[in-house]
Write a structure and sequence with these properties.
single chain, 334 residues, mainly alpha, Rossmann fold, two-stranded parallel ribbon, globular
Length: 334
Amino acid sequence: MGNKKLVFSGVQPTGNLHLGNYLGALKNFVSLQKEMECIYCVVDLHAITTFQKPSELLENVLETTASFLATGINPNKSIIFNQSSVSGHAELAWILNCVSRIGWLNRMTQFKDKAGSDKEKASVGLYIYPNLMAADILLYKATHVPVGADQKQHLELSRDIAQKFNNDFNCQDFFPLPEPMIPRKISRIMSLRDGTKKMSKSEESSYSRINLKDTADEISKKIKKAKSDSDPIPDNIKSLEKKPEALNLLTIYSELTQNNLEKVISELSGKEYSVLKTKLSDVLISEITPIGKEIKKLLDNKSHLKNILRKGSEKANIIAEENLKNIREKVGLI
Ligand code: TRP
């Protein structure tokens, strides 16, 4: 095994990506491509672990692809493709289903959350979702995986699966153990209405999130309406512990201006939140609206987007097939 670094990450196809997706994942993907080889995958096979309307799934794959491009992922540098068009993902997932253990999957907290109270009715796919995720990563022998903190447990499972494969088939170092790259600051972007909940496309009120496709007008309205605090901005983070909405606005501002939170707080301390809100609207509008416009423009030309995915899939498939040949051989498949 060489020590070549390779980044792999997957994003579920959803329409309307929001600021949380941008700051938590996409922006980081863009900067990683300057340092390493990167493969970014729209994980449509993961999406169907819960029912998706076929026409919506197709739209969402294209919109996620458009969001990749609009934020600055360069398809000539990085590989951008959709999971289902490289059949090796499904094939390796099957092999890994036979390596992974039921006891390991039973510990996955995301399954417990997603399956809800009636686990008997969850799809089998949802249960083995983490094995498919391991296959995504190991198919390319990726070494680094940028993910949100909520995927840490799945990534640890991928490492366990890689290790067990290497042991079972007597090939130490065959699969590198993938390293998680979890954003250092636990700066999760929270809902603008309830600072204890993650910003999410499933929250009912659209005032809870900034979408990448929002207009300048929508952004400033949403920030004006966002929950903050009636006291002025304090001079330390500790005083914000019980004020998650206020902390969230400051966090978003610090992320967008690339200043650390302490610095932002010390500069704004004593001021009303309306001052922060004006500044925040301005930086959001200047960073987000050009991305939104580009997404809309790209979505006007679907065949261009499909072409990018097709070319990406061809490149991904070459690496996948080469690795699969060796994997099949290790397992003893003809
Ligand atoms: N499960 C990830 C999520 O929901 C998406 C994903 C699928 C992924 N396969 C992956 C992330 C491989 C990193 C690597 O966010």
